[in-house]
Each structure stands twice: as structure tokens, then as C-alpha cells.
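BUG: 3D viewer hangs when loading the predicted structure for this chain

Environment: internal workstation, default settings.
Expected: structure renders.
Actual: progress bar stalls at 90%.

Input used:
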Amino acid sequence: METVIMVGQLLLALSILVGLHELGHLVAARMFGMRVEQYFIGFPPKVFSFRKGETEYGLGAIPLGGFVKISGMIDESLDTAQLHLPPQPYEFRAKPAWQRLVVMLGGIIVNVITGIAIFVALMYSLGSTYIATQDAKYGIVALEYGKQIGLKTGDRIVEINGKSFDNLADVTSPDVLLGNNSYYTVERANASGSLERIRIDVPNNLAEKFSSKETAGQFIAPIFPFDIGEVQLGSEAEKAGLKAGDRITSVNGKPTAYFHEVQEAVKANKGKAITLGLQRGNQALTIRPVVSNEGTIGFFPNSLLKETHVDYTFGEAVSKGTERAFGVIYDNIRGFAKIFKGEVSPSKAISGPVGIAKMFGGVWDWTRFWSLAGLLSMALAFMNALPIPALDGGHATMLLYEMVSGRKPSDKFVEGAQRVGMVILLGLMAFAFLNDIFFK
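C-alpha cells produced before the viewer hung:
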């Protein structure tokens, strides 16, 4: 069922974003009197279609894209039959270069507007909830990749690149992961118990570790006191009598105050019965659950760290949402730069449909859905703007050349460029699919 939900969210998001992208081309073409022959979401074979006026609207069976066919334009269909006839007034090729450029940029513009609108709406309706640095007073748990760069459990990260910061999430922000020569300043207790400040350099390839949920979750976590948030039905914790609201005070007689202490003690006793000391209201209790072979007993913690919530006015949401949207494009540029420098492996950085579906998760969460839809909308705008033949950016590049030089590329050259572009795109799609399946 989780797989169905993941795939369903991905297909819905792509259908919305691709439909709007192609609608941007359609509206721009119609605005300049061009004939639009087809508007399809998905690629052939055709599932169904209907005709309205001169345009056929339809749905393709392969839901990983879409297209608009404009008369007199050499596109990914490589249909050049019309080009052997004199240009007609309603054809793409008969219009001025600037109008053709607007048509080619129409989809990108709509995706940018959509991405901004989604992030503005999220900022305005939900605001921002985060753990302030000053409230993460117990420090951090250094997990596998955190330990590799020199962090230790109990460290307090007080500065990033020599500057103080307010939001604990900034520790793993794109500015750190995609920047160069970043570093943390941490406060750490020395042998005498006094605090000293230490510089921890961030490797330029650390972004590789954040290529999936699993590896990203092995960097750091805040140390937090907790009580029991939810007990899983049928779990060993439920059978032993653990209840929501309980506080675990010890494991096998060893006092515990924080979640990571309980988690580590439980994992150290896989397949064994353990003794948990509990505080339930004014009662002190003891239970003996059996730890699973995975090192869990079946509960979710409720963090008792203070969270800060900020609501935004509409004007503030417009500013924050726009900044967030264009931040996606900036992060993509920095990510590609890391790949070209050899600091990040393409197999770690590039995700296909399978990897993107996993990002949505197996539970339908509308906030996460729209957050990812906004991110995908801006990523689609960026990718389509790349100067690769067969993409909007490739068409735009040739049109800009025509406008600057006053010479239109020959139809034969455009057709050849489209063929090369299709080979590149198909190769990238194949790489993304195989990478998701075999290397992630």
C-alpha cells in the first residue's frame, strides 16, 4: 500500500506540473495566433483524447512528461512534413523570433510562477516551526557521518562559518552542504569539565551523504528529553504495558534522561528482555518488554524540546516564498557545480522517478506533497532551461542566436540538433532509472 501511495503522489504532482508547463506553451502560442494541434499530459500510447476546435487534448499512458504540438515547429516528435511546404501565417516558423522565444519560455515561466505560488501559500498558511539554537541546549547526538567529520555526542554547534545562527536546521542547510570550505564551531567539554571551542571542517563532498532519507538521517540529531508519544499496536511495548505520556527513567537499572540514551540501550539488547523504569504521573513503575531483532520495542518519542513558531503576513510570505522558490534553482546550480568539480558523484546526486517517489513517502501528507510539488516545479523550470536541444532551453538558445545574428538556423540543423538532444535526454532518463534501482 505504501508503494501505491508513493507512486500516486508522484503521478499527481507530475500531472499537475507538466499540465501547467504545457499549458504555458499553449497559451503563449495562442496569444500570437499559432495553431496548436495537440496538448497531451503523458507520452504515447494514447489512453484517450477529445478534440475542441483545432486542438486535440489527451492523456498518454506513460505519465512522465507531456507535450504540446504547435504547427510548423520541429519538436521532440521530429515531424517535419509541414516544413517542405511554404510557411502558413498560423505556423510557429512564420512568426517573429521574439514571439517564438516567448512561446518556448512559456512553460518555464509557468513552472516558476507555480513554484512561487506554492511556497508563498505554504508560508502564509503554515508559517514556520523550528527548534531555535538556544533551545537545543542539550547539544547534539553525533551519528555515523557526524562522527566521521569529528563531531561528538554532547557537542553544541554554536556557529556556522564563524557566524551565529538561530535555526538548528541551518546546520544542514544548502549553504553548508553545497558551499565550499564550510565549518562548524562547537562547544565541547574537555577532560576537566570546562567548555572549549573547536572548529570542525565540513568536507566539500558531505552533500553525497544527504542523497537519501536513510543516509541523511545518519548525520546528527538534537539531544532531547522525551515522553512516550505513541505506542504501536501489537508491539512488545504495548504488551508490556507502556502507555502514551509515560517517561522512561532507566534501562536495566541505568538512569536515562534523553531519547538517544534509551535508544542506544535498547539496541544493545536485541532479542532480549529488558527492564524499563517508568514515571507515570506520580507513580514509579517497572515493565519488562522484549527487544525485537531490529533493536526496537515499538514506540514513538515525543520531544520535550521547545519549538518556536512564526506566522507570516501575506507580504512576508511573498518575500519568504519567493526566496525559497529561487533558492531551489540556486541550489541546483551549486549541486551541478559540485558534480563538475568531482566533489559529488552523479550517482549520488541524480534521482529518477523511483527516488523522487520515495521522497513523497508512503503516507499521504498534503504539506509534504505541496512542499515537494513546489520544489519539483522549480527544478523542472531549471532543467527545461538548460541549453540542451529538445528542451525549451535548447530552442531558446537557437532563437537567441537568430535574434542576435539575424540568421535563422537551417531546418536541417534544427532537426539534427533535436535528434542529438533526444539521445541525450533518453540517456539521462535511463541513467536516472538505473541509478535509482541499482545504486541508491
